[in-house]
Amino acid sequence: MSQNLYKTPFSRAYWRDAAADFKKPRTLVFSALMVAACVALGYLRSVPVVNNISVSWGFLARALCALVGGPVNALVFGFVEDTVGYLMNPQGGWNPFYIFTTMLGVFTYSLFLYRTEVTVLRVFLAKLATNLQNVFIGGLGTYLFYSNKGYWVIVGASAVKNGIMLPVQTIMLAALFVALLPILHRMGFLPSQAGRLRLWKPMGRAAAPDVKAAQSEDAPAPGAKKRDGDPWDW
């Protein structure tokens, strides 16, 4: 696979790699396995944290799929996973709003974890971002479709729950990545520098050398003329 790594998703090379990975049969097979894993993990007993708050397991498979497949694959995976999960365990009414929130959550994981050096800080930020989505966007869905309480009452209760779950979920994800990142690298799913979990990467540190290689692919050859109106020129 391509060894390109990126500091941020704000480059055309990043999205080109994401689109290319989405088309690979092995990515689709891995995503199908993660769909099955989400369904299976949905039947496991949740991890009790405090009082009536507990942590389920499905987010682990979603984060893994985002890490391997990238943001383009994440959107398709989120749609399929939520739909299949509902069909396998149809509790309550089917609601497309929650398909959207699942797609958004997996997409967010991928923006933090795909094609980068995975650190505990990035894992924490990815989980923080998805938990904030649970609070404000998930709370909106509950307010619109399932509750007579005010929106901010729902948000407040959800914020407490997700705040308590955040460190537990971060530790669970970190432990999973410590175990699986080297294996996924050896199987060819991850670039070499993404093959182990790091504790910290200084924000000012230069990106991996492979990013420069990716950027050089976009540079015109010596003497070549730039095409007018190139839609990728930004």
Q: Give the CATH class.
A: Mainly Alpha
The domain count comes to 1
Briefly note the CATH topology name.
Answer: Arp2/3 complex 21 kDa subunit ARPC3
Radius of gyration: 19 Å
Task: Give the strand order of the largest sheet, numbering strands 1, 2, ... along the chain.
Answer: 1-2
Q: DSSP helix count?
A: 7
Order of helices and strands: HHEEHHHHH
Low-confidence parts? 203-234
Q: What is the CA-CA span between the terminal residues? A: 26 Å
Number of strands: 2
Structural class: mainly alpha
CATH architecture classification name: Orthogonal Bundle
Helix content: 55-70%
Strand content: under 5%
Task: Please outline what is shown here.
The protein contains seven helices and two strands; from the N terminus they run H-H-E-E-H-H-H-H-H. By secondary structure, the chain is mostly helical.
Provide structural commentary.
The chain has 234 residues and is mainly alpha-helical. The chain has a single domain, classed as Arp2/3 complex 21 kDa subunit ARPC3. It is 64% helix and 3% strand. The chain contains seven helices and two strands; from the N terminus they run H-H-E-E-H-H-H-H-H. A two-stranded antiparallel sheet has the order 1-2. A hairpin with a 2-residue loop joins strand 1 and strand 2.
